[in-house]
Amino acid sequence: MALLLMTLSVLCGAVAAAGGERLKLATTTSLQDTGLLDVIKDKFDEMYNVSLDVVSGGTGIAIQYGERGDVDVLIVHDKERELKFIKDEHGLERRCIAYNYFLLVGPQDDPAGIKGMNASAALAVIMEKGKADPAKVMFVSRGDNSGTHAREKLLWKKAGYNYSAVNSSGPWYIEAGQGMGATLNMANEKQAYTLSDMSTFMAYQGNLTLVPLIEGGSDLLNVYVAMAVNPQKHPDVNCKLANEFINYLVSDEGQDLIAGYGTEKFGKPLFSAARGSCELIGCAAAECAVAPSASCAAA
Amino acid sequence: MRSIFISLSSAALAGIICIPVGGIIEFREFWGKRALINLIQTFYSLPTVTVGLLVFLLISRSGPLGFLNLLFSQSGMILGQAILVCPIMIGLTITALGSVGSQIRDTAKSLGATEMQIIITVIKEARVAVIAAVLLGFGRALSEVGVAMMIGGNIRGYTRVLTTSIALETSMGNLELSMALGIILISISLGINLLLNRFQGK
Questions:
Q1: Would the ipTM clear 0.85, i.e. be above it?
Q2: Are the Cβ atoms of A38 and B156 closer than 8 angstroms?
Q3: What's the confidence (pLDDT) of residue A72?
Q4: Cβ contact (<8 Å) for B62 and A8?
Q5: Rounded to the nearest 5°, which phi and psi values hold at B37?
Q6: Do B154 and A181 touch (CB under 8 A)?
Q7: Is residue A236 included in any domain, yes or no?
Q8: How many CB atoms lie within 10 A of CB A7?
């Protein structure tokens, strides 16, 4: 048996030593759950002969990983925290890679009657009716500090509510504490309303009876941003490869891949490429362009 | 396969460390021995997410062992799971060795064996029970999800194992696939159990 153990330990040492360059990416759940990153990974791995390791969580935990230097590159969608991440010198520049819209989805019969309203007004109505009759009108929140959760908080703020008063105001407000897909499934089970990014909703639509009730509008614009982790603050990160990955995403090839993803399966694309819509989605032109390769050293 | 490999490695790593430690605890008399054994037995049910969090903080690049670059890697997972199953292995080794008659120990001693030699002799005698301890550790490593998720990060094709796949597929609403993976996991556990029974039946 000792021999067996020895062999195994040697084996595990060997595996630890083997393997080419790895790029660690922390990402929001929407890009992973829709399958887009799997496609990007396969292409990128092949082109650069590396392994893209995708760790998916909400924007909140992804940024945490970045701040600790545990990953090399991030893809997130919460402008406020992105800017803070860069201001705190944890990240290099923002690069806008894709966008779509958030949707307010709910049961087909729309018990709160929000269809056609703007998003924050609709939330206010859901809250009012939910408090009155929590068996009928419920709202499921991500409750996980993700980008979608951050947007929900922003919408509550716009509607004139203090978020901490909202999430403790009764059983109509359910905090899932899970990814987008799991949250959608939960909302579906409970026939509740929820805020979802468009891509995850489309990818899960087949299993859901929920329908989109409010879509579009600048309130619900959802921009995905890639950032390399700053090597000055975290010297162990693979900044060069991180930048190549980001450049690949904003390159014509990467943008075509993003813009075309999902058409085959869902009839329309899940994401729009940032290319060409840079201004529309509130990004500077430089944030959409392929950056010069020296940006690691310059940082 | 990856599940088996990672869990087997952690069980092996834990075995290499824990069996001798168990032996030393069993054979040495020292103050607080009883309390230590109680503590180890309490840790049998160490929550996997707590171990996950501790190991995360330990091997994160901002943590004390960050320079090893172990987070989100298979080696990190193996380390985490080894820590998780260590108490079970130490505890069960102690029990196993305790059941070996004291004559063997005394005989070995009278033949002039060193402490390490005595431990090895007794472990040989109790090998069936010690192997059972390792297999139980393997089973726990295989079926846990906390460490695998937090340390491995559920990276497709790298650190995604059966349990984390099940968690992911369920959250994605692919219940049939989750169920199928669950059945595979249970089958592996069943296999381990059969193996265990065979050893013990000898």
A1: no
A2: yes
A3: 95
A4: no
A5: -65, -40
A6: no
A7: yes
A8: 11
